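User: Can you predict the 3D structure for this chain?
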Amino acid sequence: MKVAYIGLGDMGGDQAKLVAQSEHQLTVFDVSAEARERFRGVATVADSIGSAVGDVDIVQICVRDADQVRDVLFGEGKVAATAKAGTLVIVHSTIDVDSVRAISGELQGAHIMLADAPVTRTSLDGEGRFVLTMFGGDVDAFAKARPVLETFSTDVLHVGECGSAMALKIANNMMTWAQLVVGDLVFQLADSYRISFEHMKAVTRANGNLTPVTEAFLGGSRANRGALSPEHQAFVVSQAGIGEKDLTLAVAACQVNSIDTRMIEIARELLRPAMLGDKG
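Assistant: Here is the predicted structure, written as structure tokens:
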């Protein structure tokens, strides 16, 4: 199939590289010239979104938020205006469910299908695949998308209708970020009683309380305490921003469904200090 990938950041770039190594014909675009240059000789590099998507079967989008997704789709000369009828657009970005559903309806007028396919990292397999992909869309869209998604996915899960995969991703991320905050507080408490990090880790790992993600975060936080390089500091700040965005999506989703948001709002407030080691 002919595929266009828009958004070549940390996650999108790694996915696109695996699509490029497959039998599919890949064209890529990113607003960053540096990101585009990394794909010279790897895939066809377009100089605009419109030129990337004009003759493809699938458009994959991995940008930061709903506003950027909308710009990619509805900006002048972009996807909605240039993609052919029958194109399947797959949104990998984590955005709110209402936006997914609204965009799907807006694209129907251009005879373009929309599916949401957020991802979560898994253990790397022998072929270099590194995420589980959740898919929201009808069975025909899933059948069309699956051969492309399988190039970078250790598993592909068809969740249900359009928007359902995004709901699952928001719930999953809510748990991940809240666990990081709780884990940081737990180990602060242990430190207060002079309980070693290794002893606390041994117990919480043995009983399943310590997830691999939380363990990696806490271990890295302690290893780098007071000695973050400017590059790593910038990375942590960026990750904290992503976590705050994800928890904001979770709060909004909970409010729509009359679910208590107090714990998640507190986790959002404490996340950045926990990640940056600012306990003041």
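The longest strand covers residues 153-160. Strands lie at 2-6, 25-29, 44-45, 58-61, 88-91, 113-116, 119-121, 131-136, 153-160.
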